[in-house]
Amino acid sequence: MSDFHTPSTLIIANGRYPEHPLPLSLIREATYIVCTDGAANDFIARGGLPHAIVGDCDSISPENRERFAPIIHHSADQETNDLTKSVHFCVAQGFRELMIVGGTGKREDHTLGNISLLAEYQQMARVVMVTNWGRFTPISGNTTFQSFRGEQVSVFAIDPVALTTQGLKYPLQQRVLTNWWQGTLNESLGDHFSIETDGRIIVFQAFP
User: Fold this and answer.
1) Most CB within 10 Å of its CB: which of 46, 52, 159, 181?
2) Residues 6+ away with beta carbon under 8 Å from 169
3) Is the CATH number of domain 140-206 3.60.150.10?
4) What's the mean pLDDT in 30-57?
5) How far apart are CA 22 and CA 30, in angstroms?
6) Cα 36 to Cα 28: distance, rounded to the nearest angstrom
7) Cβ contacts of residue 80 below 8 Å, gap of 6+?
8) Rounded to an integer, what distance in angstroms lies between the CA atom of residue 94 and that of residue 142?
């Protein structure tokens, strides 16, 4: 069952800062907050105090670099972005349940990249990305989601393997999705729906 609750560990990425009440509440309620270095400036300017700042440090202001030097974790690896560096940092600290906010909403290439990376992160931790419009959850096996009648749902296949859905208005039966648009704009019929697959899938559930 893929339920939804506030995790103790939250990553704020350098996309559009949350405006919806739900991601804002996640920021307020999280007990451990990691900012990518590009997101740190905005979070700090809003009165936030991160527990860790992670990245290549090319975006953080000189003032904040000096002020928060003890909690900055620099990584010069150019093969990964700052969000991935932050996920690796959290996993190294022993955190296995992560929420990401601020991962979308600016450049579209960054948005697509960050969403697709969820399929990689799920191999290390249980992770959900929350935006101003809904939440993305990566799965790699049979999963049941809590839902409500009329909830808008989209299914994005990373791997070209068959999947079957139950509880959605437009059912998929052993269907191989070969492009991301093919599983979009579906709708939940009740208080749950399920997906059966052996591949990596990213599920989007829109806020009401």
Assistant:
1) 52
2) 186, 187, 188, 189
3) no
4) 93
5) 12
6) 17
7) 88
8) 26
Tell me what pLDDT residue 79 has: 80
Examine domains 9-135 and 140-206 and report if their fold is the same: no
Tokens of 85: 């560096």
Single-letter code of the amino acid located at 65: R
Enumerate residues 6+ apart whose C-beta is below 8 A from 55.
36, 37, 38, 74, 75, 82, 85, 86
The two three-digit tokens of residue 114, written as one number: 């960050």
Domain 9-135 classification at class level:
alpha beta
- 37: Cα separation from own chain's centroid: 17
pLDDT score recorded for residue 6: 63
pLDDT the model gives residue 8:
85
Tokens of 96: 């296995």
Domain boundaries, the chain: 9-135, 140-206
Model confidence over 108-130: pLDDT tens digits?
A: 999 999 999 999 999 999 999 99
Instruction: Write out the two tokens for 148.
Output: 């409500």
